[in-house]
Write a structure and sequence with these properties.
The protein is mainly beta. It starts with 14 loop residues before the first strand and ends in a 15-residue tail after the last strand.
C-alpha cells in the first residue's frame, strides 16, 4: 500500500525499550523507577506532549482544534486557547451558526489569546468536524473547526485530553429492547 505512511509523523519519543542483551532483575533507580537496561521492560516518558487539545492554524487564518477520542451519545465541555488574532481584536464573540451539536458557551480574552469554551454532542461515530465562527468588531470572522474521533458505545471509554470534560450522556434508543414485533 503506497499511501500507508503518507501525511503521518512518527512520534520518535515517548516509549523506550531496554537495550538488547541486558540480563537480571530490575533495580530501583531514581524516583522508584527501574534503572535503564532492565530486560523486558518498556519505559514511558514522564510527560507526553500529546495529552492536550491541539490547536493549529492553516494558511487562510482559520483554526483546526483536535479534541481526540470521544464516545457516541455523550456531551462534552471543550475548552481551548486560540492565539491572538489581530483582525478580530480583543472583544470576540461567537456568530450564530445553526449547529445542534456544537454550541459556544463563552469566549474570554486573555493576554495569550482567547479562551473558548463550548459544548459538543458526539452524535455519530467516525471522524467528525463541526464548525463555529468567531467575530470581532471588524467586518471579518475566523472559522474554527472542531475535529473529534467518535467511538461507538461498544469500544470502551476513551481517555479524554486536557481541556475535554464529559458532562453527561444522551439517552439512547436500543431497538433490541423493544417488545414491538412489527407489522404482520
Amino acid at each position: 500500500m503506497a499511501t500507508a505512511g503518507k501525511g503521518t509523523k512518527g512520534k520518535g519519543t515517548g516509549v523506550r525499550f531496554a537495550p538488547e542483551g541486558t540480563q537480571g532483575h530490575p533495580q530501583e533507580g531514581t524516583q522508584g523507577h527501574p534503572q535503564e537496561g532492565t530486560h523486558g521492560h518498556v519505559h514511558f516518558q514522564e510527560q507526553l506532549h500529546d495529552s492536550a487539545v491541539m490547536v493549529t492554524q492553516d494558511k487562510d487564518g482559520h483554526f483546526l482544534v483536535k479534541v481526540g477520542f470521544l464516545k457516541i451519545l455523550h456531551k462534552y465541555e471543550i475548552t481551548f486557547l486560540l492565539p491572538p488574532v489581530p483582525r478580530l481584536g480583543r472583544d470576540v464573540c461567537p456568530l450564530p451558526v445553526p449547529n445542534p451539536n456544537l454550541r459556544v458557551t463563552s469566549v474570554t480574552s486573555l493576554p495569550e489569546g482567547h479562551s473558548v469554551r463550548c459544548e459538543y454532542t458526539a452524535h455519530k461515530e467516525g471522524v467528525l468536524r463541526e464548525e463555529l465562527l468567531l467575530a470581532g468588531h471588524g467586518p471579518g470572522h475566523v472559522k474554527v473547526t472542531v475535529q473529534a474521533r467518535v467511538m461507538d458505545r461498544h469500544h470502551g471509554t476513551p481517555m479524554l485530553l486536557d481541556g475535554v470534560r464529559c458532562v453527561g450522556a444522551e439517552l439512547e434508543y436500543d431497538s433490541e429492547q423493544s417488545d414491538w414485533h412489527g407489522f404482520d
